[in-house]
Design goal:
Layout lengths: L8 E6 L6 H13 L2 E7 L10 H11 L6 E6 L3 H7 L4 E6 L2 H17 L4 E6 L9 H9 L10 H11 L5
Parallel strand pairs: 1-2, 1-4, 2-3, 4-5
Bound molecules: 4'-phosphopantetheine (PNS).
The site of 4'-phosphopantetheine has 9 residues, from strand 1 and helix 4.
């Protein structure tokens, strides 16, 4: 019987609009488990993102610079096809609360149906991050609130710039 693959290559897919400290916590945990971790931004304009794919990748690259085995990429089409093209054998997703579970289970089972040899692993974000989402972070900044400690400083600055009220 063949043993487990020694060379785990994982994809961590998402919208990352923008990256939060919750995502970073997951990247840090994931990077310790696998030999190569590819953070992959979905190219899907239907979601009407705040930041372009290029901006999101730039922020991600800046934030994951310390991890030697983490790279940043983007994809469109099916995640399982992108994973196969990258030679990945694992998808990593984060679960914050039970409310995430139903949707994540659906996606994981659909992906398994499409490509049975590709496994999905769920990692639990640290409890300090369990309430953070890109959506709420954007809303708080848009309404003038402070998101220090919830996103990397560079992201906080970009968010502020995006929602700044023009003077003149
Ligand atoms: O950060 P998000 O928005 O929760 O990430 C969702 C993502 C990118 C993981 C999901 O939308 C996805 O994998 N899209 C690619 C399309 C696809 O493969 N669909 C079929 C399987 S669910």
């Amino acid at each position: 019987m063949a043993g487990p693959p020694l060379n785990l290559v994982a994809i961590y897919p998402g919208s990352f609009d923008p990256i939060t400290n919750g995502h970073l916590d997951l990247i840090s945990r994931g990077s310790r488990l696998v030999s190569r971790l590819i953070v992959a931004v979905l190219r899907n304009e239907d979601k009407r993102p705040l930041f372009s794919v290029e901006e999101r990748m730039e922020m991600l690259r800046e934030a994951v610079g310390d991890y030697a085995n983490v790279e940043v990429s983007s994809f469109d089409g099916l995640l399982v096809d992108f994973a196969a093209a990258q030679g990945a054998n694992l998808i990593i997703r984060g679960i914050r609360a039970i409310s995430d579970y139903e949707h994540e289970l659906q996606m994981a089972l659909m992906n398994r149906r499409l490509r049975p040899e590709l496994e999905t692993a769920f990692l639990m974000a640290g409890e300090a991050y369990s309430f953070i989402s890109s959506r709420l972070v954007k809303q708080v900044v848009a309404l003038g609130g402070d998101v220090t400690g919830l996103v990397p400083p560079l992201v906080a600055a970009r968010l502020k710039g995006r929602y700044a009220v023009p003077t003149a």
